[in-house]
Design a protein that fits this description.
Number of helices: 13
Largest sheet: 7 strands, mixed
Structural class: alpha/beta
CATH superfamily of the largest domain: Response regulator
Number of strands: 13
CATH architecture of the largest domain: 3-Layer(aba) Sandwich
Order of helices and strands: HHEHEHEHEHEHEHEHEHEHEHEEHE
Number of domains: 2
Shape: globular
Helix content: 40-55%
Strand order of the largest sheet: 12-10-9-8-6-7-13
Radius of gyration: 25 Å
Length: about 425
Amino acid sequence: MMKKLVSLMLVGAMALSLVACGSSTEESAESTTTETAEAEDTEEAAADTEEAAEAADVSEYAVAMITDYGDITDQSFNQTTYEACKAFCEEQGIDFKYYKPAGDSTAERVASVEQAIDEGFNVIVMPGYAFGGTLVEVAEAYEDIKFIALDVAAGDILEAGVAAAGETYDYNPANWNVEDYCHMDNVYCAIYQEEIPGYMAGYAAVKLGYKKLGFLGGMAVPAVIRYGFGFVQGADAAAAELGLSDVEINYAYGNQFYGDADITAAMDTWYKAGTEVVFACGGGIYTSAAEAAAKVDGKVIGVDVDQAGTIDSAYGEGMTVTSAMKGLYPTTYDTLTDVIVNGNWANYAGNITTLGLVSGDDPTANYVQIPMDTTQWNDGFTQDDYKALVADMFSGKVTVSNDIAAMPAVSAVKVNDLGNLK
């Protein structure tokens, strides 16, 4: 979409140049030649001036990224955001640096933001819900800085802001005004409909022939819950379509975003008891699911990005059935492009945008999807079947609830809700 917009702008500029440089057919050939040459010189000068202006505008910016509780090698949220920022800045010749806070606290994240600003960075990219409290503290204090927050929802900001105000938050964003607790004039937040790729992954797993499923979430934060509840809804829908009554889902949270011996031991129990595939949803917690799966030739489902290459290379070829993805890379890259190159910050400032399906015809164009290249398609669930599912979701024929108040009601699957493992 962005490329098309730029192309149309260039076509329009060329058309205007042609109109401005046209000469009358009643004038002499010599006059025409002279005016054409002068017009070409003028056009070239204007182009050079425009390019110089654009370069000057771009040169005013420097981009910093702050990691959350993870780092840029997490094969997930932080790494993907880092790679998008780095690629954009290298292509535009803009200074870029990432900062890893000293610890997992709002105070330490704020310290990293302030360090970046002190060092001259004026666009700060922050991935993850944990930055809600950071925004409350820094947005108003640094009104000249542009803050781009990925996966930071109204509830994340409100929870921190209300707590800072000494009030009690009821976890219903509709009852609160974000701007009462956080300065938003220089803030843009992008969030995702995680329930949709979660649904796709659960639907695909059952259609591909798996009946003993698991969901291992990181912490029970809204984004992870939406993934999980979507997964349950998708598995239930597929089981109902196939007339199955023996599909079962173990459902639990590790209460952390990394794997360890305790989580691996729990996954060992699941897989040894017959679980075939686990949707590992939450940063590095996938390592515990993959370690356990490798012992019994089990399978996993990745999250946020296409994790097939990472998981399969480390734990066994063919381990990753699919991945429930959200478009972190295009969100980061496209937003930076529109804000810095195109000068459209006014279209973003103060907004919290929910990203999901934007095409019913091209699944790869959507901000939420499963991978076309690495999903383990078979006769039970083909690429054409997936495209049909996306079309139905886009049209509204298939709907997915984003309600995270309680486990979704199911009709064809059994859900064993195990709560927190730790």
